[in-house]
Amino acid sequence: MRSQLGRARGLGASKSGVEHWWVERVTAIALVPLTIWFIVSVLTLLHSDQPEVRQWAGRPVNTVLLLATVIMTFHHMQLGLQVVIDDYVKKSHLAVTLLNKGAALLLGLFSIVAILKMAF
């Protein structure tokens, strides 16, 4: 026979909510320097033509930083929207959650392919 506390221990939102909270914070912190780098890069490329931008994007450091920015941005977006969905969407919660994850994945993949086509 187990007590009520013994049965309840390990249950609740704290099992999955803490990880979600941490990942959301880590992506937000990672996006601060990536966003600053991206804005500075765009401003320096403001009056460049397409071959110059392709050459810039073809540099390995810039390619990796662009990919990291896109991945972190769409993952952070998906995590943030998931919190809103969990808090406010009551009807068709599963469908909206799948739409959120699918849209973030699809838009992220389109962005990654565009960066790789530009870089190579």
From TrEMBL:
Protein keywords: Electron transport, Heme, Iron, Membrane, Metal-binding, Transmembrane, Transmembrane helix, Transport, Tricarboxylic acid cycle
Keyword Electron transport found: yes
InterPro entries referenced in this protein's UniProt entry, alphabetically: SQR/QFR_C/D, Succ_DH_anchor, SuccDH_FuR_B_TM-su
Chain segments annotated as transmembrane: 26-48, 60-78, 98-116
Pathway terms, separated by semicolons: Carbohydrate metabolism; tricarboxylic acid cycle
GO cellular component: membrane
Compartments in which it is found: Membrane
Signal peptide as annotated in the record: none
Cofactor(s) annotated in UniProt: heme
SUPFAM superfamilies: Fumarate reductase respiratory complex transmembrane subunits
Topology of the protein relative to the lipid bilayer: Multi-pass membrane protein
Record GO terms (molecular function): heme binding; metal ion binding
Main location: membrane
Annotated GO biological process: tricarboxylic acid cycle
Subunit text: Part of an enzyme complex containing four subunits: a flavoprotein, an iron-sulfur protein, plus two membrane-anchoring proteins, SdhC and SdhD.
Function: Membrane-anchoring subunit of succinate dehydrogenase (SDH).
Protein name: Succinate dehydrogenase hydrophobic membrane anchor subunit
The encoding gene: sdhD
